[in-house]
Design goal:
The complex is a heterodimer. Chain A is mainly beta. Helix content of chain A is 0%, strand content 50%. Chain A has strands at residues 4-7, 10-13, 19-25, 31-37, 43-51, 54-57, 64-66, 76-78, 87-94, 102-103, 107-111. In chain A, the strands form two sheets. In chain A, strands 2, 4, 5, 6, 9, 10 and 11 form a seven-stranded mixed sheet that branches. Chain A has a four-stranded antiparallel sheet with strand order 1-3-8-7, with no helix packed on it. By secondary structure, chain B is an all-beta fold. In chain B, the strands form two sheets. In chain B, strands 2, 4, 5, 9, 10 and 11 form a six-stranded mixed sheet that branches. In chain B, strands 1-3-8-7-6 form a five-stranded antiparallel sheet, with no helix packed on it. The chains are: A mainly beta, B mainly beta. At the A-B interface, strand 5 and strand 10 of A face strand 5 and strand 10 of B.
């Protein structure tokens, strides 16, 4: 199993550009999450999904959108990138309402 | 909402024992988890407490007191590779049981 994979690993965006961060898992997990982590800080939940077709906002959803058309994939869309979105983005998954989340390697995004 | 407090930094000597505390305030509580994150890496799950008491996994133990809204992670026989950030995370009791992470404790193990 590859676990949770994320692409790209690094990206530099100009202000106002858009992009999609890809996330996929091959563990047949129902729950998937997107977090952002600013330097020296904890993880903040952006969006989460409890199954295909079901998504909901987390703590910091503004400026982002998600979709979940399949169990495996959970892409995160950034529209009109802003410097405040410079961060490391982690995707995670869990089997169900369980306590253990599996994290992808992260995407390091810089907006200038 | 949820809020969690952890010390920002802890330094300990190789071979020693260190305790990282976590206090939380939540509107609903289901359990407390601990994650480890090395610099530049992704968080990895360490332990979970759903009930009061001590859970032991090798050199790591985690404790929870629901009445005190308090938990801790205990690391024994510290090794240099234990230098990392440690996050406590609260699972709320809402329908989807979202997880909220603390800001993390950076542990430095010195020789």
């Amino acid at each position: 199993n590859a676990g949770v994979t994320q692409t790209p690993k690094f990206r530099i965006l100009k202000i106002g550009q858009s992009m999609t961060l890809q996330c996929a898992q091959d563990m047949n997990h129902n729950y998937m999450y997107w977090y952002r982590q600013d330097p020296g800080m904890g993880l903040k939940l952006i969006y989460y999904s409890v199954g295909a077709g079901i998504t909901d906002k987390g703590e910091v959803p503004n400026g982002y959108n998600v979709s979940r058309s399949t169990t495996e994939d959970f892409p995160l869309r950034l529209e009109l990138a802003a410097p405040s979105q410079t961060s490391v983005y982690f995707c995670a998954s869990s089997l169900d309402r369980t306590y253990e989340q599996y994290f992808g390697p992260g995407t390091r995004l810089t907006v200038t | 909402g949820q809020s969690l407090e952890q010390p920002s930094e802890v330094t300990a000597v190789e071979g020693a024992i260190v305790q990282i505390n976590c206090t939380y305030q939540t509107s609903g509580f289901y359990g407390l988890s601990w994650y480890q994150q090395h610099d530049g890496g992704a968080p990895t799950f360490l332990s979970y407490n759903g009930l009061d008491g001590l859970e032991e996994t090798g050199r790591f133990s985690s404790f929870l007191s629901r009445s005190d809204s308090y938990g801790y992670l205990l690391l024994q026989e510290l090794q240099m590779k234990d230098s990392a950030s440690y996050f406590c995370a609260v699972r709320d009791s809402g329908g989807y049981q979202k997880v909220t992470f603390g800001t993390g404790t950076k542990l430095q193990v010195i020789p």
